[in-house]
Design brief:
By secondary structure, the protein is mainly α. It has one domain. It has eleven helices and no strands. 36% of the residues are buried. It is found in: Cell membrane. Pfam families: VTT_dom (PF09335). InterPro entries: DedA_domain (IPR051311), VTT_dom (IPR032816).
C-alpha cells in the first residue's frame, strides 16, 4: 500500500493528494495518517513543494466535509438519522455516531470544527451537526479550513522530517498499512453483518 499511495502521488501530484483526502473525509478507505506523511516524503525528496502539499491536503479535506455539511443542511437531523438507521451499515455511519457528533457540536460549536479535524471519526461526521444547526457556509469553511490546515501540516511535517529514513520507515509501514487497511475493511464487513442481524 505504501508503494501504491506514493506512486499515485508521484504520478498525479497535488491532484492525487486532493482526491485521496477528499475520499478520506467522505468515506475513509485510507486514513489521512497514511496519505499526508507520504506526500511529505515526496516533498522532502524535491518532487513536490511542501507548501502546495499542505494546501492540496487542506483543500481535499475541506471539500470532503462539504457533502456531509450540505446533507445536514438540506435533510435535517431526523431525516439523516432515519437514513442512518436504514442504510447506515452500507455507509459505515450509525445514528449513535451522528448523535455523538451532534453533542460535541452543541457543546463546543465552532472550536469543535477545528479540533474535531484532529480526531478520527469525529473528523468525518462533525460537519453534519454544523449543517443541522443552520450554520452559515462561510464560518463552516473558515473553521474547518483552520482545523484541516493544522492536521495536514502536522502530518506533512512529520513525513518531511522523516525523509532521510524513508527506506526504513516504508519497510515498517508497508505491512502496517495493510494491517490498518485490512482492519478497516473487516470492521466495515462486521458492521454490515451485525446491522443485518439487527434488521432481521
Amino acid at each position: 500500500m505504501v508503494d501504491t499511495i506514493t506512486e499515485f502521488i508521484a504520478d498525479r501530484g497535488y491532484v492525487a493528494i486532493v482526491l485521496l483526502m477528499f475520499a478520506e473525509n467522505v468515506f475513509p478507505p485510507i486514513p489521512s495518517e497514511l496519505i499526508m506523511p507520504f506526500a511529505g516524503f515526496s516533498a522532502a525528496r524535491g518532487e513536490l513543494h511542501p507548501v502546495l502539499v499542505v494546501l492540496a491536503g487542506t483543500a481535499g479535506s475541506l471539500l470532503g466535509g462539504l457533502p456531509w455539511f450540505f446533507a445536514g443542511r438540506w435533510w435535517g437531523a431526523e431525516r439523516v438519522k432515519r437514513a442512518a438507521d436504514r442504510h447506515g451499515r452500507w455507509l459505515a455511519v450509525s445514528r449513535a455516531e451522528i448523535e455523538s457528533a451532534e453533542k460535541w457540536f452543541d457543546r463546543y460549536h465552532a472550536p469543535v470544527l477545528v479540533f474535531g479535524r484532529l480526531l478520527p471519526g469525529v473528523r468525518t461526521l462533525i460537519a453534519l451537526p454544523a449543517g443541522f444547526s443552520g450554520m452559515a457556509l462561510a464560518p463552516f469553511v473558515v473553521w474547518s479550513a483552520v482545523g484541516s490546515l493544522l492536521w495536514v501540516s502536522l502530518l506533512t511535517g512529520a513525513g518531511y522530517l522523516m525523509e532521510s529514513r524513508y527506506g526504513t520507515i516504508a519497510a515498517v509501514l508497508e505491512p502496517g498499512s495493510w494491517i490498518v487497511f485490512g482492519a478497516i475493511v473487516l470492521a466495515y464487513l462486521w458492521r454490515l453483518v451485525r446491522q443485518g442481524r439487527k434488521g432481521g
